[in-house]
Amino acid sequence: MTDNKVLSGIVEIGRGMATVGKHLFRPPVTLEYPEVMPELSKRFHGRLCLLTKSSGEDLCIGCQACARVCPCGDLIQIEMHRDDKKQPVIDRFTIDIGRCIFCGNCTEVCPVDCIKMLNDFELADYSREALVLDKSGLSLSGEESDKYRKEHGLEPHVE
Fold first, then answer.
1. 40, 44, 48, 49 alpha-carbon torsion, rounded to 10°
2. Which among 41, 55, 58 is positioned nearest to 118, based on CA atoms?
3. Hey, what domains does the chain have and what are their CATH numbers?
4. Cis status, amide bond into 34, omega within 30 of 0
5. CB atoms inside a 10 Å sphere around CB 116
6. Closest to 145 measured CA to CA, from 50, 18, 10, 42
7. Which of 66, 74, 106, 138 has fewest C-beta within 10 Å?
8. How far is CA 71 from the centre of its chain?
9. Please, which contacts does 74-80 make with residues 24 or more away whose CB atoms are closer than 8 Å?
10. How many CB atoms lie within 10 A of CB 49?
11. What global pTM score does this model have?
12. What is the pLDDT of residues 126-157, one digit of tens each?
């Protein structure tokens, strides 16, 4: 009875050593992160951002399509009003990325291509409150927005 246990133990050790032996002469697949950043696909779903017009003004029209399509419920909060010229003015735009599942629905439904996903994946923070990004934390500058549009094949200059 104990001979069977000893023999099966030796067989299992041999199987483990065979697995180690198979991988011993293969090149490593790990990166020296954060010194070497991984190359991500253009379709990677990372941090959300708001593109602006080339002048730096808000591109968002406050239609709230992104908030309605979000499967997480009240994750996206938008408050807006219209000015004297009946143009939308966004008073408050917040996204709780701590609860976001990064599905990309909000980016697909936006009629003006305002909300996009960047390749930024380092989103860790020390508090849940810090993961609620407001308009200033989400908005890219006019130059950054133009650069993003150019890199992703969108209309390069928006007035």
1. 60
2. 41
3. 48-151 (3.30.70.3270)
4. yes
5. 21
6. 50
7. 74
8. 16
9. 75/99, 75/100, 76/106
10. 22
11. 0.74
12. 999 999 999 999 999 989 989 988 888 887 76
